UniProtKB/TrEMBL annotation:
PANTHER family: SLL1037 PROTEIN (PTHR42941). Pfam families: NMT1_3. Residues 1-24 form the signal peptide. CDD domains: PBP2_TAXI_TRAP_like_2. Keywords: Signal. The keyword Zinc does not apply. InterPro entries: TRAP_TAXI (IPR011852). This is C4-dicarboxylate ABC transporter substrate-binding protein.
Amino acid sequence: MKTLRSVAAMALSASVICVSSASADAHSKEGWPTSFTVGTASQGGTYFAYGTGWANFVAENLGVGGGSEITGGPMQNMALVHTGEVAFGLTTMGPARESMNGNSPLAPGLKMDNVCAMFPMYQTPFSVTALSSSGITSIADIPDGARIGFGPAGSTSDTYFPAMLETLGVNFDRRNGGWSDLGSQLQDGLLDVIAFAAGIPIPAVSQLEVQTDVNIIEFTQDELNQITAAFPVAEFTIPASTYTTLTGDARAVSMWNFAIADCTLPDSFVYEATKLTMENNDQMVSIHNSARSSVPANFNKNTVIPWHPGAAKWFNENGYTIDSSQIK
């Protein structure tokens, strides 16, 4: 099973970002790993910022060495957590369902059942960005054969956004890459559009706003109706305050993200990491604004992944009922 790393690596070469850790206390840590890694996604995206900050937060407070790994995103994180090559990861409900059902493009036929839910993160809006100079102000304006960046291969955006745009009648030339790289390509005229699926504010979009004029393109109500009928997403509103470019709220669709854990991790370790995260939302928000949605009440947005016993224990102790049938 460990050979899955070589398959997943084709989606994106992985590199490790190290973060600090406090000295470990000996009490109540029997069986805990000496260090852990969190699978994130490409630089310039929300997963990278959120996951790296969260790894640092857990390491410093639980006294276990921690770090984050740049990966291809949700699909690859499911694979890496399933094989135990990373302890934790970040994923989205759609890719999680595909992976658990054995439909991951990284390992067709392999049901990834060693992945457990840990806590809710935030909703991933699907949004489209173009340079203002392109004249593209709506989905209908995207010209035939437009060069569209869909993020890293196997990412949530790459998995769902091409099919969404095809449903809306868009004909395009598909491109992949990390969000920061795609942002640079858009600015340099090598791309016409970027189709983002990432928590807001997306670092790459915020950076583009500083450097040039962009259009953040919303869906029409008819387009929303078509997409929500065909894909596992829900209507979402990007608040006008998210970006300086927006003059009003923007219509979008979204999919929920959850932190995941290797199901074989000690219950007490996952319990303490969940407790730390769920009881300190102000510090999570300081890591990334999207963490405003990383609150216990959103536990029920997980309709796909079985819960890790350690995480479920914290939720059940604090009035958020997770039935035993939903626990690994």
